[in-house]
Every structure is written in C-alpha cells, then in structure tokens.
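Consider this:
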Amino acid sequence: MKDLHFDIIKEQYSEELNRESMLGQKAQVYLSILTVFLSAIIFKIKDLKQVTASLHECEMITLYISFICILISAVTIIKSLGIYEYRKSISLDRLIERIDSEVDDIEFNNRSAGDYIAAIKHNVKINNKRANLLSIALYSIIASFLTILIFILIIIR
C-alpha cells in the first residue's frame, strides 16, 4: 500500500473522530436549549395550572403535543450523549506485536490499514446513529416550540 493511500485512510479516521466531537457539542447545545425551555415552563407552572383549568379540548391537545415533543427531545438527546464504544485504529497490544515482529514500513502500513478501515466503519455507524438521534431531538424541540407558540396564540385570542 502506498503512503498516500494510508494517509487517506488515516484522514478518514480523523474525520470520524472530529465528527464524534462535533456531535457531542451539538448534543450539549440542544440540551442547553431544552433546559432553558423547561426552566421557563417550570417558572410559569403556577400560571399554567390556572390557564389549563379553563381550557377546551383543542387547547389541551396542543399542550399535550408540546409536552410529548419535549419528552421525545429529552430522551433522544440523552441517548445521543450516552456512552458509545468507539473503535481505536489499532490496539496497543497489536502495535507492540507489530513493532516486535520487525515488519517493514510497507507491511506495517498494510496491516494497520485494515485496522483503520474496520475502526472507520464501526465509528461511522455509531456517529450516524447519534446524528439521527440528534435530528429527531432538533425536530422535537422545534415542534415543541411551535406547539407552545400555537397554544399561547390560542389562549390569548
């Protein structure tokens, strides 16, 4: 394997590690938004209790939909922040074994490329799962904002 091919494989591996970090940061931002949103609701819970006492069915449904969206976003954000097992490019034991076997650089790169490719495939699956969870969380946050806005517009009419 040429050094260029090996460098491309290592670059792909680095990109997935960067993507992991970016997904974690995005999840933290979503969690912060959700926390502020929930804090505002909790702060106004007394007013909300008074308002809900005189609501019609349509208004209550809108409120329930909003709370369901908040719950979905919270669950998906927490799941995306969960502990996932990312694969390393090469384990320390394998690295020591290859160094001890005194293989030349080309053979070392050829063997290591397989490890990198396996790690990339594994890490892509995990990152895709986390990205999908965060997409659901984002859509749920947007839906909860919209339904709360609709709820407010309905009750102030």
About this structure: Residues 105-156 form the longest helix (52 residues). The helical segments are 3-43, 45-52, 57-80, 92-100, 105-156.
